[in-house]
Specification:
single chain, about 230 residues
């Protein structure tokens, strides 16, 4: 007879059976948790459901408001609650697993659920999404220590080493030649333009906006303040 290392209560067994049932149901595109389901999931902090619940949240967020039903509204209201109640490392893995499907939904979750994390944001930069990474710099995490400062400083250094996506090119006209700043999206600007002057663009040579540059400056100041507080 096998020697088991621990016992399982009836309630634990019941919850695990429900968790597996929910996991199977969440794989079906048209199935959304009810209010009772959400309460059970959140109360029992069920892990392993995050990816499926995140998909329901994103689908609901992408829908026009007039097309959302009660189940979509439940997903929008309860998924952040779920993320806040499960283990932080699991929550980070779930939300950062899809930062691209819905930019606004992803950024809102990072801010509202305090999911700032140097390692995950650093990976966004490594994958060429430094503009999205910059959008997250004003978010917070629950607490900070000396190791956090090291991670933040390393993240800041990544922004100092961003590749050049735009160029400065020499354009020859009929009577003169002049240098022009060509932004990452191909718009032509005077050489002294730091940010693209094309309407709706505004990117610098690294692909960042003026607002994102300001966020990087504010992030550097936050590191300084945090270091002083911890010292």
């Amino acid at each position: 007879m096998d020697n088991y290392r621990f016992s399982v209560t009836a309630d634990e067994l019941k919850i695990e059976c429900l968790r597996r049932k929910y996991c199977e149901l969440l794989s079906q595109p048209d199935v959304f948790p009810s209010e009772e389901n959400w309460d059970c999931i959140i109360t029992n902090r069920m892990d392993g459901l995050g990816e499926g619940l995140y998909r329901k949240y994103l689908v609901s967020h992408l829908l026009d408001e007039d097309k959302r039903c009660d189940f979509h509204m439940l997903a929008l209201r309860n998924f952040p609650r779920y993320i806040m109640c499960v283990d932080r490392s699991y929550a980070l893995d779930v939300v950062y697993s899809d930062p691209y499907t819905d930019h606004d939904a992803f950024v809102d979750l990072i801010y509202n659920c305090r999911l700032f994390d140097c390692e995950h944001i650093g990976k966004l930069i490594d994958n060429g999404h430094h503009d999205l990474a910059a959008d997250l710099l004003d978010a917070f995490q629950p607490e900070y220590d000396g190791d956090t400062i090291d991670g933040m400083q390393f993240l800041l250094a990544k922004f100092d080493r961003l590749p050049l996506l735009g160029t400065i090119e020499l354009h020859r006209g009929l009577f003169k030649a002049e240098r022009r700043y060509i932004c990452p999206d191909g718009h032509s600007n005077p050489q002294d333009a730091i940010f693209c002057r094309e309407d709706g663009c505004g990117k610098d040579i690294n692909g960042l906006s003026e607002h994102q540059r300001l966020e990087i400056e504010n992030f550097a100041e936050r590191i300084k303040i945090l270091r002083e507080m911890l010292d």
